[in-house]
Specification:
heterodimer; A: mainly beta; four-stranded antiparallel β-sheet; two-stranded antiparallel sheet; globular; B: alpha+beta; eight-stranded mixed β-sheet; 13 helices; about 30% helix; about 20% strand
């Protein structure tokens, strides 16, 4: 499987670490314990296209977003180029 | 005279008529040595192990998922609680998911007291299962070795052994020499990349025939009146005012006040139909089997460090399993990465297997939870129960999960044995933390 890295282009999946579904971290200040635990544990786990964060650990060591179909592992660049902060 | 009735209508066959009649009274389906002899001599065909029924428009209990968990739940509901008006729905064939894709290893040497007593009950049920179901499940108690390749893993194993012994589970740390005695083919020299320093030895562990477990439960549940529906996919769950009222299937709608989600791989998808969000991510786990060879490996051998477990089946094939794939997916396609890594790791343990050929590989879907423990019991939707999140350890828990879920349905209260595994633990922060012993260590 080839992963489209926004900096390095298509590279073998073994060079990357998948960090899972892209989730937004709530502001730790003022968030309830319940909301924080929901952010920690609950996932949509969709059978279909998902937006994920990957880390190019054996390349540019950048974090970025991709879209992947979890039924077929077809993978494509994130429409916004995937170059997200963090 | 026909080929299937070698003695025609005279002699021994007539003499057997009386025997046949006496068996008929006990039920034609009971399997025994005498029944085998009778069928062999008369050429009489065996009746199907379970019946095909019409899908009724309503059932008091609907179980989604016809694997070992769903079928065991149905069986114990009928046998222990007299609730026989139950439908088990499966989108494919019985045992076609995780129940037919696991590596059939049984053990109870877990790390947390909750885990140990739970899996030990399962092992007890497995030990008596063949007699209970009147179906040979081929449980072979051959011992289970978890190899230690570092001082750190030896320490964890000592910890596990002590937790196990406190719960009355036979489990002990053994040295490399004992390992060599149990499995002479293992390379215990210190010249390897990951030398074997010792192991956690668990004599009651073993392997079982996983299809037989599924078929045995299905047959026994069917005899007690449970309806088994294959090729019946649940496409929706009706919820009204926070209560389950029915399920939609590819064969029509079924009204029901109680739905048990006993699926593996698809638990998030089914739960989302009822509006329930689960702390689950689905990962494929790959396994492979070699050509059959003469019996040489008695014990189940596991290496957490090398992400591999090996056992030899009654047919002589070696069954290999790995840890889950590195990213979540619903795809069960095999990968070259897996076979390559697996072969390297197995050969590090047993170099003499270099010429053995891999016959086939496959993958099953594992619903991983954040604490490597299952999710069992009620949810926020009344009448929607779950028995999910079974990760890579669901098969060995099948009987006890079925027994506990049946009790949960019959009494309306999760039994003590599964109380720590409720869905609410994630919101409350009471995780079970079984990762140290549940991950990989099959």
């Amino acid at each position: 499987m080839l992963v489209p890295c926004p900096w390095c282009g298509l590279r073998d999946a073994a060079e990357f670490r998948c960090l899972g579904e892209s989730v937004t971290r709530p502001d730790p200040v003022g968030v309830s314990t319940q909301q924080w635990r929901a952010y920690l544990y609950l996932r949509d786990n969709v059978a279909g296209w998902v937006t994920e964060r990957w880390y190019h650990r054996m390349g540019c060591r950048q974090y970025f977003l991709v879209e992947r179909d979890t039924r077929s592992n077809e993978i494509r660049s994130h429409p916004a180029d995937g170059r997200q902060p963090r | 005279m026909t080929a299937s009735r070698p003695w025609g209508n005279s002699g021994p066959r007539a003499a057997l008529a009386g025997v046949r009649q006496s068996f008929a009274r006990r039920g034609p389906d009971r399997y025994s040595a005498l029944a085998l002899l009778r069928h062999g001599l008369t050429g009489q065909t065996w009746s199907p192990a379970w019946r095909t029924r019409d899908l009724r428009r309503s059932y008091p209990v609907v179980i989604v998922g016809g694997g070992v968990h769903g079928l065991a739940t149905a069986y114990y509901l009928a046998r222990n609680h007299g609730i026989t008006d139950v439908a088990v729905l499966d989108k494919g064939y019985l045992g076609g998911g995780g129940s037919g894709r696991n590596t059939a290893i049984l053990r109870s040497n877990y790390l947390t007291p909750e885990g140990v007593r739970f899996y030990d009950r399962s092992l007890d049920l497995y030990a008596g299962l063949a007699a209970d179901l009147n179906y040979n499940v081929m449980f072979s108690r051959r011992g289970h070795l978890t190899l230690a390749h570092s001082d750190a893993s030896l320490r964890t194993m000592r910890w596990r052994a002590e937790v196990n012994k406190l719960s009355g589970v036979d489990s002990e740390v053994v040295g490399a020499d004992d390992v060599k005695r149990l499995v002479p083919h293992l390379d215990i020299s210190d010249q390897t990349r990951h030398p074997i320093l010792g192991a956690l030895y668990h004599p009651p562990g073993g392997i079982v025939r996983h299809d037989a477990v599924v078929w045995g439960y299905a047959r026994a549940a069917d005899r007690l009146g449970v309806h088994l529906h294959q090729d019946t996919e649940v496409t929706g769950i009706e919820v009204s005012a926070g209560r389950v009222t029915g399920v939609r299937t590819t064969r029509g709608d079924v009204a029901t006040p109680l739905v048990i989600n006993a699926t593996a791989g698809w638990s998030s998808v089914v739960a989302s139909m009822a509006g329930v969000r689960l702390p689950v991510q689905t990962f494929p786990l790959q396994a492979a089997v070699t050509e059959p060879v003469k019996p040489f490996l008695r014990t189940v051998v596991v290496s957490g460090t090398l992400h591999v477990y090996v056992s030899q089946t009654a047919r002589g094939e070696l069954v290999f399993g790995a840890s889950v794939d590195p990213f979540a997916s619903y795809s069960t396609r095999g990968s070259l990465d897996f076979v390559e890594g697996l072969a390297g790791h197995v050969l590090q343990l047993m170099p003499s297997l270099a010429k053995l050929r891999v016959l086939r590989q496959w993958a099953g879907l594992c619903d991983m939870t954040p604490d490597f423990a299952p999710i069992m019991g009620h949810t926020e939707v009344e009448g929607f129960l779950v028995d999910v999140g079974w990760g890579t350890y669901g098969f060995k828990a099948g009987p006890v999960a079925g027994e506990a879920m049946a009790a949960c349905v019959a009494t309306g209260q999760p039994p003590d044995l599964i109380a720590p595994f409720g869905l609410e633990r994630f919101a409350q922060g009471h995780l079970v933390a079984e990762k140290g012993a549940a991950a990989v260590g099959h």
